Amino acid sequence: MGSWNLLQAVQETLRAEMASDENVVLLGEDVGELGGVFQVTCGLQEEFGPQRVIDTALAEGGIVGAAVGMALYGLRPVAEIQFADFVWPGFEQIVSEAARIRYRSGGQYSCPLVLRLPYGAGVGGGIDQSASPEAQLAHVPGLTVVCPGGPRDAAGLLRSALRGEDPVVFLEPKRLYRDAREEVPADETMPLGQASVRREGTDVTVLTYGGMVPVVLDAAEQAAASGIRVEVVDLRTLAPVDVGTILRSVAKTGRAVVVTEAPRYGGFSGELAAMLAERAILHLEAPVARVAGYDTPVPRVFEDTYLPDTRRVLAAVERVANF
Amino acid sequence: MGDELMTVLSADAEATEANAPPLGDRELRELYEALVLTRAVDEHVERLQRAGKVGIWAPSAEAAPVAIGVASALTNDDWLYPSHRDLGAFLVRGGGIGQLVAQVLGTVHDVTLGRQVAGHPTLPDGLFVPPSAALATQVQQAAGTAMAMKIRGREAVSVALCGAGAVDQPAFHAGLETAARHGAPLVVVCRSAGEDRGGVRRARAHGLFAFLVDGADVLAVLKATAEARERALAGEGPSLVEAVTVPAVQGQDTPDALSRLQPFLEHRGLLDPGRIAEARERADRKVAEAVEAEAAEPRPPLDSFLDGLTATRSWMLEEAREALAGHTAGTDDDRGR
Asked: Is A62 in contact with B175 (Cβ distance < 8 A)?
């Protein structure tokens, strides 16, 4: 138990799980001696040794492939990709291998690994170190895709992922790494596939996750000042997403806004909008609105403009509320 | 090592005897029978393919001396990551011909439930990790398993089999580099068509020990793999075995693995023309009987394809089951359910 930011929550959860399960090993570029590019694994190699905190070659396909081979043999590898933008060389191992091995072996093999991807904009990463690839990942049958929006959820969801039986992609919103602290209970697990209602409201539902959660909470607070009661649903798991909580909320409010920082076109926000069109159309009092990043890579000096902010979220909420 | 082509089987039986790995009569007979059986599998599946009963199929007989030689050098604690042409290894590591034919035909008896392309069977516990059609991904996975073996202090090696094309893939390089960097007990066996030594050159670049062997010589493959395995277990790091195969040319009779091995078995008194014919007939009958037994079997239950993607079924797949029942109501699929 401690008061931790998101980075500390991830680090302390890794530490605790490594201490209690010797099968948990970490691997990635500079995760050992240097503690990782964001210092998430700082000190863990010192504590658990180089056999369990493994500095790898700088080859993402190699990192994911090695993690697959370890998981098949019975370890519980946690592979870090420095930036989600760099995951593509490992994509073949994720899509064609990790996500399919249970299925293609008729259940004779399983691949319980966790792939940690620091993702998203907001730290000056420019076009190659700011991406949000959740849509590509959520589209892969067999992958569980998790994206916490705060320290306590990060700890609880990561712990569940580490104790699970299948591959999990764990998207860490790097702009929240050193953001607000939260009390994080020891040894708490949070079920994957369950959303969290961060704020209750009756007028508009906002569906969001990860780095957008604080932005949306802020916008909800401001909306309340003008009399719009916003319900904020933090999805937490994107695949499989918690359709029950989403539909319950929208049935109550009749209005929905989806907020993601990824590009809009072909994005995960489209899946959510389609879900509402298919399943909640008779509850909807207004078209579903999407607030998203622009359909470009993230431009460094304009990233504050690129990223949805409170103002844009608030404008969408008001538009939907007053439709 | 790796500069001269390692061979064991030669026209001179005494020289072969002097070079051969220590194998008893029974083991030699098993090697021979596995080669014959793999060839019979190819022949029967190609017939099924021509009859339209099997789609995509990659023949295994040409790669069989490598697959069989490698698998015969391993113990059950060793893991094998095969390519899609290594059915010989499947048979050596305990895979039954019935199971293989069920997989090829995609019947209800296929443990992989008719999902995989024909010729991609699997055995549990690392005996035959299910191959994928992606090139060289298994090399890197095998390196990961080798690291896991080292972490756990196991007396075992992890072996990847791959074809000539795999050596150009990033995963091939990543696998070699990973294993070399961590001193992991990995043995990579790649077939190569011709003499360019693509495997050996790459192995050396990553600091692996390299063997160059005659890929039609099952005893040479077995011997090199056994030596590579011993090196790995002794903590001397990963190795690569490049097995040079001569690609079959249509209309030409290339010396195959069987005609290489036969004289030695004849010298040992294990084969004669009568027994050669008998072995071929036995293998042919075995496959034919399996094909006959499976040909009339139904596919796996229709909704099985929505099972077992993850340990816990997602709501999407729960809904898909209902949707599937609706889509197929009143159709042959429904009646065959």
From this structure: yes
